[in-house]
Amino acid sequence: MLDPILLLGLVVAVLVMSLAARALSYYFRLPFIIFLLIEGIIAGPEVLNLLDPALYIEGLSAIVAISISVIVFDGGLHIDLKHIRMVQESVLKLTTIGVLVTFLGTTALTSILIDIPLEIAALFGALVTATGPTVITPIVRNIQISHRLGKILELEGVLNDAASVILAAMVFEWVAAELSGTDAVIFIFYRLGIGIALGSLSGFALRWFFTRKIAFSKQTVRLVSLTAVFACFVLSEYLGNESGILAVAIFGIILGTSEFPYKETIKEFKGDIVTVMLSLIFILLAAMLEFEDIQRIGVSGIVLVLLLVFVIRPMAVFISMWNSQIRTNEKLFLSFIGPRGVVPTSVATYFAIKLDSMGILGGQSLVGLVFLTVIITVFLSGSLSKKVAEMLEVIPMEILIIGGGKVGRILAERFDRRGENVIVVDISESNCKKCMELGIRTIQGDAGDVNIMKKAGIEHAKYVVTTTNKDDTNLLFCQIAKTCFGFRGDQLVARVNEIENLQAFWNLGIRAISPSMTTAVMLENMIGRPHLFSMCEVGGEGEMMEVKVTNPRVVGRAIKDIQFPEKSLLVMVQRGSDSIIAHGSLVLEYEDIVTIIGEGDAAKQTASILYK
């Protein structure tokens, strides 16, 4: 029987190791999951023998099941389908076509490179189709990639976990009970139906419960939500083995997409629990690793995992997204980020125990392959993801737009199309709804409330743009951004509706523009100066941008001596507090800020020449 003191000692040890992992993560700027893996291996029987999971084997399956249910639910809770309409098709293809490509490709390579039966190779192929949210979410939050890419990866991870478990369960039944034909089809659809039905029912039921006109304490909210997650998982598993993960994933996504009281309370509470459970699972499972299993696989296993990372994963991404709007550099980044996590590791351990009890060979090889895959993919993704993101230029600016009226919506849509991370804040429900219909992230609330601004992510924003039709409101929001959040004047851009109010913004160093004045200037230039107007009217196919001069090859050279794209124009050079009209004889200096207008991609090409 499991000694309660041993179990409590295990929890204390894991919490201490988790704190140490977080401290190391903060110091080295790497995902803390990497350090959890290292700590688990070092503390395990293979190195220091301070932590032996064999002593807790009776309760390990239960611990893993409980932890996975909460972790997957938390992943779903952070998915809001209203904000990711543009990526739903991509995610759907990644979790269907992508899973199939990964499964078939990995199974074929494993059977060729590793000396194990085809059935075990197929079981391994099914398990590693999952790109776990437990690993991807910290990576996404750490490097702050574009919102679109982040949501693709997070949603893929949540849904892939469920798809992987069901696929692996079907293969396991094929191995253990010779399941095939109609039975296999029934197996898949029955478990899909159970998971989707119970997850949906749980999500709508809990949302209905919390929208009743009853005041609940935070403790009650936490207890009810945690009980509902466990109940959903247990009932789904009872009705259809291996369908529980899909059920809690659907449960979380429904709540994440809904607006109801106490949503933030549930998110905060689940986030704290997930940290503990994530630490518990990774340290325990890493401690279970036996070097003998890895040695038995040999160099072929490492080659297999590298092929999985650099061949199979890119094939799955590019095949499933061949006609999508995702750019090539974004597809390359998605191809690189494919770490495997808790689900394949824990399920592989469970299957190995089952196979050993049935006298079927290959269980330990399966565990060794999965652990090797998890270790290599987590280390590669965790340590190199930020460098790869910077190299592929998928880390955008964070831009906060205050005001979701017509101007704010058009601006947000342009920024979003440009690949920037943009959030709109507006107190009007109608304006917020229109922004969300465009796929723009939106926060409804008063931008004068510091808590609303924090919720919108102002602490991570690079620019704040105020676009409301009230000048005093725009000025107030800019002052809040400066005094409460430390924004400089050049990070604030404001719409000024009345020309006489421009000076008030300029006195605070805020970059402001008057639509009336701009329109008058444009109309003036249309009369007798058609070429000047055409340079200003960039339209939907052109672009105007500012770039800082940092390329040593252009510093100290006159503009006329630098070969820029034909359909681009340098308009203005900001040097310190001076604004200089760009002319051929002007010599560029380091950290000059140049305003560029270009047709098509010409502005971006010019910017790449100036900035290195």
Automatic annotation (TrEMBL):
Keywords from the UniProt entry: Antiport, Cell membrane, Ion transport, Membrane, NAD, Potassium, Potassium transport, Transmembrane, Transmembrane helix, Transport
Compartments where located: Cell membrane
Domain RCK C-terminal residues, every copy: 530-612
Membrane topology (UniProt): Multi-pass membrane protein
Keyword Disulfide bond set for record: no
A cellular component annotation (GO) from this entry: plasma membrane
Membrane-traversing stretches: 54-73, 94-114, 120-140, 152-172, 184-209, 221-239, 245-262, 274-291, 297-320, 332-353, 359-381
Broad class of where this protein is predominantly found: membrane
One of the protein's GO biological processes: proton transmembrane transport
Molecular functions per Gene Ontology: antiporter activity; potassium ion transmembrane transporter activity
RCK N-terminal domain span: 396-517
Keyword presence, Transmembrane helix: yes
Superkingdom per UniProt: Archaea
Described function: Part of a potassium transport system.
Entry protein name: Na(+)/H(+) antiporter
Organism name: Methanosarcina mazei (Methanosarcina frisia)
